[in-house]
Design a protein that fits this description.
289 residues, alpha+beta, Phosphorylase Kinase, domain 1, Transferase(Phosphotransferase), domain 1, four-stranded antiparallel β-sheet, three-stranded antiparallel β-sheet
Length: 289
């Protein structure tokens, strides 16, 4: 959608990234609208896991954004080189993104294009979510109605409700996309494969489910498999209802405990037998913000 340049902002003596919309796209009203939307949405958000936008404008017909410079690679870059993320690293990345989504959710927004290419892993070890060009207010029904029937997003990571072009897409759609991204990180492939049309059909068909992630990576824990399964449930009523619950479960996974929201108490008792790792600790679901 644009080119990104590394630059120095002289008046503040800091390194920044300047994103310039491609000249051809700048003449397209839809792409121009998305580019401007990214600036408007990003201006509302200040969070350590979201790339900050400092300024926006236009010079000689070239729209631009001045952003925080995040030196590193995207998750997609690493996947393209054949990396399969170990469970702990993948969960830590997903936790950072979930915290960013919680902040986005608090501002009444939905990202709608969460995917490996929009997650930067910086050289300093930080995780940054980028590209808010498809984000919109959840409550803006007029905006949503204008897009009804359009499957906006990236096919491999798009939610079933986005495929259907539903008006009432909410944060649970972003959580599905995070689940698809997490699946890809720990298995080395996206949940569904094929042509764009085939992949979109698989997202909505109840008869088609992803290959169980532990078949592709036997080292995965049962807890992570349960979390991914809950994120990728096609019925959004059965997914995590908000990022707070997901954050709770991911933090438990990092401690070596079972995810309470993805695996409620009766399931834990039935599955764990006498092992019971962490059964008595933190068994209460979190208060959601």
């Amino acid at each position: 959608m644009g080119r990104v340049y590394k630059a120095r902002q002289r008046n503040l003596d800091r390194i920044v990234a300047i994103k310039v919309l491609h000249e051809a796209l700048a003449r397209d009203p839809e792409y121009l609208r998305r580019f401007r939307r990214e600036a408007e949405v990003a201006a509302q958000l200040t969070h350590p896991h979201i790339v900050h936008v400092f300024d926006a404008g236009e010079v000689d017909g070239h729209p631009y954004l001045v952003m925080e410079y995040a030196e590193g690679e995207t998750v997609q870059d690493q996947l393209d080189r054949g990396r399969v993320f170990d469970e702990r690293t993948a969960v830590a990345i997903a936790l950072a993104v979930a915290e960013a989504l919680k902040h986005i959710h608090r501002h009444g927004l939905v990202h709608r294009d969460l995917k490996p290419a929009n997650i930067i892993l910086t050289r300093s070890g930080a995780v940054k979510l980028i590209d808010l060009g498809l984000a919109r207010p959840v409550a803006d029904t007029a905006w949503a109605s204008a897009e009804v029937g359009n499957a906006l997003g990236t096919p491999y990571y798009i939610s079933p409700e986005q495929v259907r072009g539903r008006v009432d897409v909410d944060i649970r759609s972003d959580l599905y996309s995070l689940g698809a991204t997490l699946y890809h990180m720990v298995t080395g492939r996206a949940p569904y494969r094929g042509t764009t049309l085939e992949v979109m059909r698989q997202h909505v068909s109840q008869r088609t489910q992803p290959t169980p992630p532990d078949r592709l990576n036997p080292r995965l824990s049962g807890g992570l498999i349960a979390v991914i399964g809950k994120l990728l449930t096609k019925d959004r009523e059965q997914r995590y209802h908000d990022p707070g619950d997901l954050i709770f479960d991911l933090r438990r996974l990092l401690r070596g405990d079972r995810p309470i929201v993805a695996m409620p108490e009766p399931e834990i008792s039935a599955l764990s037998g006498s092992q019971g790792a962490g059964e008595g600790e933190g068994s209460t679901r979190p208060a959601t913000a």
